Structure formats: C-alpha cells, structure tokens
Amino acid sequence: MIFMPWSWVGRKRVSRHLISWTKWAGMTGMNTVSVSTSHDQALDAMLAPRSVAILGASAQLSKVNGRPLKFLLEKGYAGTIYPVNPKYSQIANLTCYPNVEALPTVPDLAVIAVPAKEVCAAIEALGRKGVRAAVVFSSGFGEMGVEGKEREAALLATARASGVLICGPNCLGLINAFDKVYATFSQYADGNTAPGPVGFVTQSGAFGTAIAALARQRGLGLGYFVNTGNEVDAGFADIMSRVVDDPRIEVAAGYLEGVKDGPGLVALAQHCLLIDKPLVLTKVGRLGAGVRAAASHTGSLAVEDDLFDSVARQYGIVRAHNEEQMLDIIEAFVYTRPPAGDRLGLVTQSGGAGVMMADRAEEVGLVVPRLTAQTEAKLSHIVPGFGASANPVDVTGQFVAEPAILRDSVLTLLADPEIDIGIVWLQLMAAHVDLLIELFSDLKKRSAKPFVVCWVAAPEEAVQGLHRAGIAVLRGAEPAVDAVAALVRHAAARRAWLAAKDQPLPKAKRPTLHINGLPQAGVVPTMQAVQWLVAAGVPMADIELAESEDAAVSAWQRLGGPVALKIESPAITHKTEAGGVRLNLSGEAAVRQAYRDIIQSARKYDPQAMLAGVTVQPMASGDIELVIGVKRDPTFGMMVMLGIGGILVEVLRDVVWRQAPFGVDEARRMLDELRMRAVFDGVRGRPPVDKQVLAVLLSSVSHLAEAMKERLLELDLNPVLMGEKGAVAVDCVMVLMGQRHSAVV
Amino acid sequence: MIFMPWSWVGRKRVSRHLISWTKWAGMTGMNTVSVSTSHDQALDAMLAPRSVAILGASAQLSKVNGRPLKFLLEKGYAGTIYPVNPKYSQIANLTCYPNVEALPTVPDLAVIAVPAKEVCAAIEALGRKGVRAAVVFSSGFGEMGVEGKEREAALLATARASGVLICGPNCLGLINAFDKVYATFSQYADGNTAPGPVGFVTQSGAFGTAIAALARQRGLGLGYFVNTGNEVDAGFADIMSRVVDDPRIEVAAGYLEGVKDGPGLVALAQHCLLIDKPLVLTKVGRLGAGVRAAASHTGSLAVEDDLFDSVARQYGIVRAHNEEQMLDIIEAFVYTRPPAGDRLGLVTQSGGAGVMMADRAEEVGLVVPRLTAQTEAKLSHIVPGFGASANPVDVTGQFVAEPAILRDSVLTLLADPEIDIGIVWLQLMAAHVDLLIELFSDLKKRSAKPFVVCWVAAPEEAVQGLHRAGIAVLRGAEPAVDAVAALVRHAAARRAWLAAKDQPLPKAKRPTLHINGLPQAGVVPTMQAVQWLVAAGVPMADIELAESEDAAVSAWQRLGGPVALKIESPAITHKTEAGGVRLNLSGEAAVRQAYRDIIQSARKYDPQAMLAGVTVQPMASGDIELVIGVKRDPTFGMMVMLGIGGILVEVLRDVVWRQAPFGVDEARRMLDELRMRAVFDGVRGRPPVDKQVLAVLLSSVSHLAEAMKERLLELDLNPVLMGEKGAVAVDCVMVLMGQRHSAVV
After folding, report:
1. pLDDT at B7
2. Which residues of chain B neighbour A456 with C-beta distances below 8 Å?
3. Using the beta-carbon criterion (under 8 Å), do B143 and A386 form an inter-chain contact?
4. Quick one: which of A136, A261, A596, B504 has the fewest CB in 10 Å?
5. B652 CB near a chain A CB, below 8 Å?
6. Which site among A349, A398, A427, A681 would you substitute to test the B interface, given the most B Cβ atoms closer than 10 Å to its Cβ?
7. A341-372 residues labelled b (16+ CB within 10 A) or e (exposed)
8. Which residue segment(s) compose the domain that B467 sits in?
9. Is the CB of A676 inside 8 Å of chain B's CB atoms?
10. Is-contact A357 A403, C-beta < 8 A?
C-alpha cells in the first residue's frame, strides 16, 4: 500500500497538531486522538517558562549576556530567575549560581549566552539537570563556514542526546510579552513591549527586530517575538504551532529567509486554517539572485520561490511582499471580520483616492461593483452635488461640517447587497479626531459588514482611538486595498479548505502499481508511462510502438489520418534534437521513409543508445497548448505544475503549482491563477474551453503523483492540447528514481 | 510643407519655454530667442505676488474665506494684503475695501472666495482694475453637472476677455512658502510649512493636502503647494513650468487625475530634462474602472493610461505608483546625485534585507553585480566572519561596537568599479544615532559615488541629522530600491534625451505627399498605402493588385512560390471575417478557385461593397509576430505602438507606445520595454533577431506618422514578421480623417 496521504507529515508535527486539533475538536465536531509528547512539553517550557536560568549571565546589564536579566527584572517577570556564572555570587540582588548543577530547582528554560565552544557542554549539563528547553544566543555555528557547520551538527546531536529542545543558535532569543518572559537581548525589548494579539516568529534577528519596532510604532502589540536563528532544532513551524495555540494570539506573523521544513509549514498552515488564525508571512528570496544570497546567508536550503508561493495559496497562507505590507495586513486581520466575498465598496473625501483604490482593486483581483439603483438614489440625497454617489462614493470635504454625510454614506454603501466590505478614505483632519472616532465607533456598531479606515497622515490619537474601537487603520490608499485583498483571499481560501477537508478527495482512477515491479531508475518506456497515465484517468493521445518499418505502416493504417513518428529510446529525451521526430505523415511511403530517417538520425545522435523503435500517433490539434508536469521537490514533495505552453512557458513563466494530491476544485483555482487565464474563455472568437475537463485532468495527475511518490522523480506532459473536444496529452516523459528517498518525502 | 516638428506645441507654452530656455542657453550653449509674454507675467503675479487682494474676505479667520488672511498674517507675508468685502471696514487691523474698484493700487493676485454666481463679475472687475491673476476657490463649476459646465465656459470666456489668468475654480489655492504667499484655505497650511526644494502641484485638493502633510511628516519641505482644481485656464503644465524655473526648486512633484494638455506636459517634461530638475508624477486612473471614475470626477478627458506611461518614459517623467512612492522618490532626488549607471551595491546589517533588496532590484531592472575579486578580498578583512563580503554585503550588527566596519565596508563597496550607486540598510539603533549621523556625513564627504540610507524604524532625530548632512533616508528595503531605480532611470532618460536633442533625427525616407492629392476620408487603397509605407522606408511584403482572375494568376506566376489572396475593398477591413482571405495557394487552379471564392464571399458579406479586386502576396514567415500601429490620440497626437502579436496582444497587452516622431535609439528603448523582450534574443534555440532593423522600421513609421499627421487617423501593420532575414510587414490598414482636426493636434 503506497497511497498514504499525510504520511509525509513528520511524526513530531503530527503529534503537535493532534493536540491542537483535539483542543478544537469540540468546536469543529472532529474526532481525533489526544496525544501529548515531550516535544510539546519542551515547547511549552521554552515559550511560557515558570523559571529561567541564564547561563553566562553578566552583571553588566547592557551587555548581550546582561540584557535578558535586565529585561526580566524591569518588565516584571513573575517566575524565578537563576543567573548562572562562576564569576559572581550575586547579580542585581539575585543569587548567581556557579553552574547548572548548583541550581536549587530545575528551571523550565535556559538562556545560553556563552562562547560557541562551551555551548555543547552547557546543553549536556542542562540535560543532566532535566532542563527541557534552551535559547542559544551564541553565534559561531552554521553561519561560520565548514568548522561552524560541524559545530552545529555536534550541537544538534548533543541536544537530542540530552533531551533539550533548542531555539537557535545564533539568535536574539524570544519574548512572551503576556507572561513577561524576556529571554532575549534584542534592542526591540528596550522600549514598550506591551502584549497584543500578534504572534511573531522570525528567522532573521536584525530584520525581525526592525519589523517588531515598526509594529510598535503602529500600535500593533506583539504577544510573542521569537527569533529562531539557525534553527538547528526547533524551527519556524514548530515554534509557531505552539504560539498560535495560545488563545491570546489572533494572528500569526512570520519572517522567513528559507523553508527547511516543508511538511511542517503545510501542517502549520492547515492548523491555522482550522483554528481560524491567519498566518501572514514575509519570505525573502523571490528571485534567482535573492535565493543565492539567502543560501549563502542562512545556510538553509532555499526552495524555489514559486513553489512556496503556490503552496501558500493552496493552504491559505497570506504572503506579504515586504515588512510594511505585512504589518498592513496584520492590522486588517486583527481588527476586521472576514468578508463574505470580494466586492469592495469605497467611500472617500477625494475622487482621486477613489480612482486610485478602484485601480488597485482591479489589479489585485477585487471587484468594485456598481451599486444598486436604490443605493445610488439614496446616496444622491446624502452626498453633496459636487461629490459622487456611485461606487467609489465621494462625500467631499463637506462631511467635516456635516458628519452625518459620512456616517450615512458608509451605512448606505455597506447595506447594499452588492457590497461585501468597505474602505473609508480620509486625510489629516487633526481638528476633528474626536468627532471621527465617535463616528466610526458608531458605524462599527451599526454595520453588519466589515470595513477598514484608510486615514492618510492620521494624527496618532486617531489611530489609537480607532484601535480602541476595534477598527483597522491603514495609511495609504493602495496599502488599504492590498490589506483588504488579503482579508478577502484568506476568507475564500479558508472556505475552500474547510469545504475540501470534509469531503474525501474524489476517487480518481489510480493505476495498480506494484513497487517491486517498477522498472529501474531512469526514463520509463513511453508505452508503459502512457498505460499508467491512462489508468490514472489522464486522456492521452493514441499511441503505438512500432519496432519495425512494417509495424509503423500497420500502425498508421490502424490509426487512420496523418500521423507523427517519434524515436523511442530510454537514452533520448530530447527527441527533436536527435532528429527523432517526423510530423504530419500521410501515405505508406512517407511513413516508411520517416521510420528510416528517424532510426538513422538517432543512431548518429547517440550510437550507444538502445533504440526500442518508433512511436506512432495520430496528429492532434487544439487551440491552447499547455504543459503539465510533476516535480519532486526536496521541501514540499510531489508538486504538480500547470503552464501555458509554446514559446510562452519559457519567456513568460506563466506557471502555477500545487502540492499533490488535490481535488478538482483546487485544480480549478490553479487555472484562475494563470496570468493568461483569459485564453480559456476563448480569444479571437474561439469558443471557451471546458475548464472542468482540465481541472479533472490536473487532479488525476496529482493522484498519480501521490500514488507514485516513492519512486517518481519527474513527469512531463508536453504539450497538452485543449480545444472544443476537450484535452489530450500528446507527449509524456516519466522518470523514476533509483531508490526511495525516505529522508526527503 | 506639412512636416512641422513641434508645431503642435501650443504658442503659450512655446513662449513660456523659450524664456526658460534662454535662461539656460548660456549653460547649454543653445541659441534661442528671448520672448516674454503677458502670460508669463501673469504666472509670475500668481505665484510670487507682491500684493494680494482677498475678494469675499471674512473676519472669521477659521472660515474658508478667512483662512488666507489668517495664514498670510500668521506666517509673515511681506507684501500688501487687501481684504475686499463690503460688510467690513477692517479685518484684523487691515483696511477692508468694499470692492475691487476701491483698491488703492493694483494687486498682483486676487483670491476669489465668493459664491460661484458672483465669480464672473469679480473677474471682470479685476480685469478693469488691471489685475493679471486670480485664484478661484469657489466651487459650483465643471464639477456640478450641465449648469456648472456652462458656468465654467462663461468663466473662461470672461477670464480671457478680462485678461485675468485663473487658477481654479474649485481649488484650495496655492502656497509659495519661500515668499510666504498663502492664497489658500488648505488645512495643510495649519501646521509648519517651512519651504524646501520641492515644487508640488496637484489637481486634487484633498489628495494633494494629504501628500503635502505626508511630505511634512518626512521632513521634506515644499517650496510651492498649488492646487489647480478644475483647470479652466492655467493648468498643471502651465503652472509647473513657472514653479520649476524658481532656482530654489530642485524637484518638481505633481499629482494628476487626468491630462488635459498633452503638448504642454511634453514641453514641461523636456524643459525639466534640460534644466535637470526631475519631474515626479503620481497619476491615478491606470485602468478601465479608474479612468471611468476619473472622468466622472474631474470632467477631464482621461487619456489612455498606457499612452501616458509611454510618454512619461519617452520624456524622462518619473512616474510614481502612489503617494508614498512619490515621496520616497522625491526624497532620493532631493539629496542624491545622479548615478552613472544601473549597478547597485548593497550594504546591510541583515542578510535578509540584502536578499529582499537584491530581489527587488532584479524586479525593477537594476543590476546587483558581483564585486571584483580585489573588493571582495578587501571586504573579507573588514566584515566579521559570520557576515558576507559579497554584494549584498552583510556587516552584521557588529558595527555598533566597531563603527569602522560599516564605514570601511561602504567606502570599499562604492569604490568598486562595478558599482554606480549604493544603499546602506540598517534599523532602529536609537542608542547610536549621533555616531551614525557622523559616520554617514563622513561617508558622504569621502565617497565619489552616490548612496542612500535605508533606515527602518529610524528615530526622528536620525532622519533630521542625515537630511542636514544631505543624505536621503528611505524607510524600507523595497521602497529604497524603487527610489534608486527612479534615480537610475531618470539619469539614463536624461542622458538619452540630451544626446538625441543635439543630433537631428536621422533623415528617414519620407513620402512626397500632397495634401490636396490625398484620397477622401476612410480606408486608403492597399496599393497606395503600401507605396507610401515603402517610400517611408518600411519593408513591406511584395504585393500586387489583381482586378481579374487572370491577373491573379499572372501575379502568382511573377511572385513565384505559394501566395496569399486577400479581398481589396474600401468597405471591408475585417477581411477574414468576410471570407476574403485564402492562404498558401500553389498552382493556377488553386489561385483561380481562390479568386472566385473570395469575390463570391465578399459579395455575400457586403452586397453594397465596391470590390477593387484581390491582392496577391507571396507567403511570408518569421519567428516572431509583431503588431505595429499608429493611433491619433486626442491628448498626445500621433502615437506609435509596438506589440507582440498573435494571441498575446489581446491577452497580455504587451505593447509599448511612443510619441512620433522619434529616432532609432528611442525605438531601441521601446523594444527593451516589452515584457516579452526575451523573444528577440532567440528562444528555443532560434537565433536572435536584428533589433536594429526593427528599431529603424519603428522610427520610419514614426516619421511617416509625423508627415501625415494632418490626415492620418490610424495605421495598422499586422502582422510584422521578424526572423533571421529581417522584418517584413505583411498586411496594412491605413485610415485617413476627413478634415484637419486642428483643434486636436
């Protein structure tokens, strides 16, 4: 039995999520088994410790190894603090212990602020003492060349042997602001760190600190701030899965430089969908140069970014382009209910702002609908004559004198059945802050639909007042639309995921494969590959293998009409290059000649190649040329690709990916993500193609990929032709691996 | 003589710019004629008045008609102020005059704050008094339906008859902060309005106020703030051309909702290039929905946004996506010298920030080069071992302890011959502001190359300190890269424009057209159009007109090889739809049959159509299918389009435009702006095409368009096929106008 959905989810995370799922099972009616593990206990000890030891604590409280103690004391940590350093007997009126052995109790968490070469010994001592979790500040590991990498491997081995879960090394540490845990030396902790509903986990210390500081500037409170550093042990997904289970956290925010643990990230994303806590990520390394730099920086295995992007869409991860956009989106999620759809209503005091937002909405896929005639009529009585009572509504600056204009306009717009969510744009208004806070608070109470405020150059007290009223405040027209688009997309992704979760994936025809009967590594003979594909429900063009000239002629006669002949050899994957393709052949003479030409060219191209003969296929045609493929990705496993073919795939890279397996509905969403999706609706007067047929094909390929995941390295269906008569895959190349990569999948 | 370059430049602007050009002639060695006009004197009176009358002035200084007086007094305007209102004899200790006639001298500028219906009378009175300029706050004009539009037309007629130049109506007025002129009621004037080197002109009052307030928040001083409102008379380009000539202004910034005066904008842009003052614009109305809303809002004629965008690129206008990006770009221009090229060096304290900036740089077309081996070696001795000494350079947080790390890294990077401009990224550092200001000031003095600082969550005093040192401070990694990209593109556009300015456009072959001999309005007979195109230097596929079946056969024989037959009729432009096209015909029988079929189909399609016969062409082929066209745009005149053809033009809209005429170098830049430009370099193993050939073709089309501009409505070359053998236009449709649209072009 090789069809094992979810089997690739690492044990560790399965247990982690079973716990979380149990917690929510009552809400969702799910039936799961409760399992508690030492790993989870260690995460609890790390993120909500009742006692903290600081190894290498300094009496100079401004130094890296003095700052955790300073913060814990200043901010009022209620647990027990154990400074550990043989140089002192007391620090800041606390007893300082010479070593771990001397500690009077077993602390939940240890902060390790000693030189790299002393870290392993410290971990061993902690293990002996029974400490379950440690934050390692020390640098000099994976980020420091070969020697550092060796030291890092030793650290992991020591941690596992000692039963100590590590955050780091080479990290700034962590903050749990609710419980006043400051196991950090980050300069972010220097200022006000009042907790809020955002859990923030960052791979980068410096960039993460910058983001945390920006969040504070905006009045967004971080409940957690965790820098995972080199992630030798506990990684981003691990730690975040514990953070989001804190009921005080409403939004999960992350900064990533690379994904080391694909299955963990996918499991985390699904967990977040289940418990309805949006996961908002900024991940750097979008392009080639970026990926190279990220690899050299963090030593992490950089995944191809478009795979990451597709997985994010598949599992409802909200991806932000950069730090400011991430904070805009978080602001929107913290204060705004999910919209029921994608139809945006705009109210502004400036026509231009309305235009800018309408433009941006169109660019990011939101709809700015016409309002109903009734609504427009009603608005025309509210809005001054030199304003606009259509969507975008322009109430003009007149509302300052008559606030009812703004209030009634927003209420009327949001009440329109064509509208799902609103943005209200205004600017400055330093003299009218109290009035506006009251007005918006009233609107929030009276409107059943969500809205955000876009307030350009907002006075600080306006932001604070609206936050108190539970209203998101964005700072610019385009960022506001982008944030609303994130709300809309997340709500849609969650609805789709919940719907798919409760129905098993439609039974696709699945080939009966016997793993022991599979051929050797390398290119699978075309006839065999086609057989499996057909068995899996993939519509393949008719094909016959001709092992002789005569056989080719017979095949042509059977197939009827003009045919294509292609060389068949496990050694030749680039058939055209090898002179191994002849198209549009009619008549016996042409077929015979083509057979001879092909065999001759192939022998010349590669004299060593085993030639199995020539495949014979009827000529196929279609309006749209697609490429569908499967790639085995080291991070995310079996990934299915859809691209628009011909010259376009190479030049425009208009391709989308999904993790296998997936259902037909998910496949439909793939089509909608292609930039050139308009071709499916028929261009130049051609009729639209049947998207459902294509979606079924993609889903079938995904099931085949899942079924073959222990051996499949690569599958390429190119071209897949689509026309009025449906879809047909004309050519295929399937490549198997030699042995199971159990470490990868 | 119908070839009159620049003749379309409105008189008004020509004179305006001749003045400016004269001023700069000494610098550039140009030889121009000095002309001063009353229009320019009126602009001077409007923007730098030595005396201001306020018609409708109120003693309630917080009201719209009281605020200009309040601001003038509070901020210390040194000129004379004349309140005018029969209700008062004194306001704020100033004599208040009952009417314009009673004023003791002729004021330079009048602010009109009276109801709409009284404005015309006021303008007449001002005209009689000899006042040359007025700012009209009053609303109730073009923005208020049919009646308002009529009132606006009357206002313009009155203004012209009275010799008064108007800013407005329906505007917030203007500020000249250098000379403390506050002819405005904008809430922006409520705060600190200390002048700076930015001249800001905005069509929208509310959005413009928001932008001005944001500029103030960033410490960017506005020397001018002008809201042009309905632009009944003086428009954006008009007013900005006066603003940029103020030597205290270094950067021109504008917010547009529509372009009413295309030639004026182009002239302004060229003037700005000449005097080296960047013109940075935000224009809303990018997309369909947006354009509709803009039209309903401002009543201005919305131009197709992609034309605007292309014209901006052609004339070095820097277009910002939104208000924040505009301010980022302005910040960069105010403090940064133009870079010599597009090669970006990055220094950060966070690897992730380096990756994010490298990604963004690639996306916006900048190069992040490898450093020379010497530079990398030098950096490896400066940067800590856990940092990165390649570009992007990661100095790590260690520089806080050892500032020399940062200073020496930046100097070393910028000294590399591969680098043109640098970005230094850092965050927070509240405790090290003074040290860093000193460090960057020192860098600024010691580096010959420009750099900007990207300081995330920067303390306010850091921004102020760096501004004092003449250093731009950006707030985020991506915005910093975008701003640098604007510097790079502007510098390149200016170099290209200056180079082109000094050499006359290469003499293209130009058809000898006699305007009186041109055919009637409508579709030009294909043979005639081809003749003109060939005469203009456009390579056209061979073509013959066959007026009979026999003639078609002879043509086929002469041309040799397979041919295409197409219906020729002035009434039929959609030939395929009319069944009027037969391709790939070989042999006499096939040609005869095709001729008969085509004529029959065409008669059936349109029994009334005059059928001139059938054109006969050899079949053409190429690797790339292009569309080249000319469109007569009401705003920008003759515009030449290049698009990548086939299904792509419709689905992807990968097209670029240029205003005709233009040279070959400019045409080369068009090619580089296509998203699919990679196809020119050869895809799927095809050889690259000769871009120069295509550029010459485009330039030739632009000269033809210019030569025919009095009559040409539309020209469509589709397809133009490109391959190894060069380019050939296969089909053409040329349409003429019935009469000269002198009002338009």
Report:
1. 30
2. 210, 213-214, 323
3. yes
4. B504
5. yes
6. A427
7. ebbbbbbbbbbbbbbbbbbbbbebebbbbebe
8. 336-500
9. yes
10. no
pLDDT band of residue A33 (cuts 50, 70, 90) is very low
Least confident of A14-28, A128-142, A606-620: A14-28
pLDDT given at position B684: 65
Residues B108 and B160 in one domain: yes
Q: Where are the beta strands (DSSP E) in A388-547?
A: 393-394, 421-427, 451-456, 473-474, 522-523, 544-546
Q: What is the pLDDT of residues B194-213, one digit of tens each?
A: 999 999 999 999 999 999 99
State the CATH number of the domain containing residue A650. 3.30.470.20
Q: Which of the listed residues A618, A652, A684 is the one where a domain comes to its end?
A: A618
Task: Kindly state the helix (H) or strand (E) to which residue B16 belongs, with its residue range.
Answer: helix B11-28
A138 touching B (Cβ < 8 Å)? no
Q: Are A160 and A247 within one domain? A: yes
What's the token pair of residue A158? 């020591």
Chain B residues close to A213, C-beta within 8 Å: 427-428, 456-457
Residues of chain B with pLDDT > 70, as a percent, come to 89
Collapse the DSSP code of B455 into the 3-class scheme (helix H, G, I; strand E, B; otherwise coil) and give the result: strand
**Which B residues 221-260 touch A at CB under 8 Å?**
255, 257
B507 has pLDDT over 70: no
Residue A16 inside a domain? The answer is no
pLDDT at B575: 86
The C-alpha angle with vertex B225 and arms to B220 and B227, in degrees rounded to 5, equals: 140
User: B522-523 and B732-736 as β-strands: parallel, antiparallel, unpaired?
Assistant: antiparallel
pLDDT, position A95: 97
What is the tens place of the pLDDT at every residue in B616-625?
999 888 888 8
- Smallest Cβ distance to A217: which of B148, B286, B457? B457
pLDDT band of residue A29 (cuts 50, 70, 90) is very low
Q: What is the CATH number of the domain that holds B416?
A: 3.40.50.261
Whether B165 has its CB under 8 Å from any CB of chain A: the answer is no
pLDDT at B517: 55
**Rounded distance between C-alpha atoms, residue A69 and residue B728, angstroms:** 77
What's the pLDDT at B197?
97
In this complex, do A356 and B290 lie within 8 Å of one another by their Cβ atoms?
yes
Confidence bin at B505 (pLDDT 50/70/90): low
| Distance from C-alpha of B110 to C-alpha of B134, rounded to nearest angstrom | 5
Which of B70, B204, B356 to probe by mutation at the A interface, max A CB count within 10 Å? B356
> Between A and B, how many CB-CB pairs are < 8 A?
242
* Domain stops at, among B558, B586, B618: B618
Which residues of chain B does A148 touch, with a Cβ-Cβ cutoff of 8 Å?
386
Chain A residues whose CB is inside 8 A of the B206 CB are 348-350, 352-353, 397, 427
Is the minimum CB–CB distance between B352 and chain A shorter than 8 Å? yes
Q: Say which residue, A210 or A291, is predicted with more confidence.
A: A210
Give the pLDDT of residue B266.
97
Considering only CA atoms, which of B323, B536, B345 is closest in space to residue B454?
A: B345
